[in-house]
Automatic annotation (TrEMBL):
Pfam families: TetR_C_13, TetR_N. InterPro entries: Homeodomain-like_sf, HTH_TetR, Tet_transcr_reg_TetR-rel_C_sf, TetR_C. Residues 28-47 bind DNA. One of its GO terms (molecular function) is DNA binding. This is Transcriptional regulator. It comes from Vibrio coralliilyticus. Keywords: DNA-binding, Transcription, Transcription regulation. PROSITE patterns: HTH_TETR_2.
Length: 196
């Protein structure tokens, strides 16, 4: 691995840590350079703009997300029924937020603006859309193999799963981990029972 690649990876690791704690918008070339012990111009040379830095951090976060949420379920997927694979994904997904100092970078970075007008929001939209589609495919596989009822709409089921996740995220900040997880899993149980 080249020195430039090692330096860039170290920068992204630190940027990911900072963005997890303070939000993606808080990242600046100057503050990140200070945290990495680099000059502003040295750090800037790796990204050339704040947008490029934020997009690179989102790509890095997506890689970490894939390693921590999707890969463990994929590794055991041949031995698991589709319902159990989805439960594993949900458990990993719920734990993903709280394995850092802060919260879910993807949720925190989302803006109520037109994503087409902002390259960072375009990258974020793509990341979230990819994850939502992956979940939808998992539900569809359960329908195809007969685990879930044939008239189950995988897109609607995924919408409802994401709703539970968003609720758990909010409840975590208000009521703490235990109550948030309890309500999340009660919702998942009720939902998956209705899928059969």
């Amino acid at each position: 691995m080249s020195k430039g690649k090692v330096t860039r990876d170290n920068i992204l690791s630190k940027a990911f840590e900072l963005a997890s704690e303070n939000g993606l918008e808080s990242l600046t070339i100057g503050e990140l350079a200070k945290q990495c012990g680099m000059s502003k111009s040295g750090l800037f040379a790796h990204f050339n703009s704040k947008d490029n830095l934020q997009i690179a951090v989102l790509e890095y976060a997506n890689l970490i997300f894939t390693q921590r949420v999707i890969a463990p379920a994929r590794e055991q997927s041949s031995a698991l029924r589709q319902e159990q694979k989805i439960r594993t994904l949900l458990d990993n997904w719920l734990g993903w937020n709280h394995s850092f100092q802060g919260s879910c970078m993807f949720l925190d970075a989302w803006k109520e603006t037109n994503p087409e007008a902002n390259p960072t929001q375009q990258a974020l939209k793509k990341t979230i859309a990819t994850w939502v589609e992956y979940l939808r495919i998992q539900v569809a596989k359960g329908v195809e193999n007969g685990e879930f009822r044939q008239d189950l709409d995988p897109k609607q089921a995924t919408f409802e799963l994401y709703g539970l996740y968003l609720s758990a995220h909010l409840f975590y900040s208000i009521h703490g981990e235990h109550e948030s997880y309890q309500h999340f899993w009660q919702g998942v149980e009720r939902m998956m029972t209705s899928w059969k």
